[in-house]
Specification:
This protein is an alpha+beta fold. It contains four helices and four strands, in the order H-E-E-H-H-H-E-E. The radius of gyration is 22 Å and the shape is elongated.
């Protein structure tokens, strides 16, 4: 089958357009990935079905005194929180309440006591968002 030069030209234009679109999308992805990675704020993403972290930045690793990103990604939020928060409530119970509120009411901003791997506790301000990651 012989392709007409018009069809060939149309395909080349479409191919060029698709390459340009891919370059734009790649630029945007890389821009936000870099912002996530270099942020001075500790950032992490939790998979609610497994309860484990699936992404974090260097600030989160340093803040919790974890050796590496791989080690951090084997943790759950309860591993870096004391069993009981200063208010006397269970960290697990309160965390679940904030997750539910994020689902029903939107972003949550709250004070939390976290801990380093060595058990040292420290206060922090947590901002929690719910969003679905397309897989």
């Amino acid at each position: 089958m012989v392709m007409s030069s018009k069809n060939q030209c149309d395909l080349e234009k479409e191919n060029l357009h698709l390459r340009e679109q891919l370059a734009k999308v790649s630029f945007e992805r890389d821009k936000y990935k870099t912002l996530f990675e270099v942020s001075g704020d500790a950032l992490s993403i939790i998979d609610l079905s497994s309860g484990k972290f699936i992404q974090c930045n260097d600030s989160a690793i340093k803040m919790h005194g974890v050796e590496s990103k791989n080690n951090f990604l084997n943790l759950s939020p309860s591993d870096i929180s004391p069993p009981i928060q200063p208010c006397g409530k269970s960290s697990g119970e309160l965390a679940n309440r904030y997750v539910e509120k994020a689902h029903s009411e939107g972003p949550q901003l709250f004070q939390w006591t976290h801990s380093k791997i060595d058990g040292t506790e420290f206060p922090c301000l947590v901002v929690q968002y719910k969003y679905r990651i397309r897989t």
